Amino acid sequence: xxxxxxxxxxxxxxxxxxxxxxxxxxxxxxxxxxxxxxxxxxxxxxxxxxxxxxxxxxxxxxxxxxxxxxxxxxxxxxxxxxxxxxxxxxxxxxxxxxxxxxxxxxxxxxxxxxxxxxxxxxxxxxxxxxxxxxxxxxxxxxxxxxxxxxxxxxxxxxxxxxxxxxxxxxxxxxxxxxxxxxxxxxxxxxxxxxxxxxxxxxxxxxxxxxxxxxxxxxxxxxxxxxxxxxxxxxxxxxxxxxxxxxxxxxxxxxxxxxxxxxxxxxxxxxxxxxxxxxxxxxxxxxxxxxxxxxxxxxxx
Length: 300
Known about the structure:
By secondary structure, this protein is an alpha/beta fold. It is built from ten helices and ten strands. The chain has two domains: 6-135, Response regulator (Rossmann fold, 3-Layer(aba) Sandwich), CATH 3.40.50.2300; 146-296, Reverse transcriptase/Diguanylate cyclase domain (Alpha-Beta Plaits, 2-Layer Sandwich).
């Protein structure tokens, strides 16, 4: 079930608290906020039932703030409370992704109605998200699969183009996994891949994702991350793999390393294929020499 908490953001203190009370009376816990950054942090953690965004106060540029909130979580329902009688404002808000627009001061019956519908919407979105997660997971490692990677990268690249933001990927390949298969058997080799996926996931942000590309190769996507940031992440993941001891539950303590290559939009490629090819080639530079490193290939 999605979070039933509602955020009330912007407007005057009086209007914000009055709307928060109406939300509470409608049966939802409400949190009144003045800081847009705090609201973004809240919805990055989890989907909320709804955000009421009041015009004024922190929301002096409400449509720009609407963009920022939806950029942080595109599926979040957001209701603007302001000059609903202004057709230009209402149309602009709906075009940019607002769930609904209410006139200020919001009437209690309207608040209750929009909350009821938004809660049903959030529940459906959550259920659909679970189904998508199941369909897009790799059966062995539970990392995301390659089919979803292709779709996800296109979505992230479109967002990066729209907002003129960096986007990086890491191409990762385990070193000497064949030795594990030969020494302990393919079942243990499969367990190593499962451990690797879980280990990498623990060291990623919520917005980052790990995908099984094939065999012992993985791809990690890093939104809002430039080349320097991606290099730091890659070295952190490389060290995490190197320090970890695999197959402890099997009575072993196997040490492995991994080779990484990175690519960043737009310097290293303008689309998913170009970025993947660049990162793969950068990884191969390490794989064919020292291993246990991070490859950064200059664009010719």
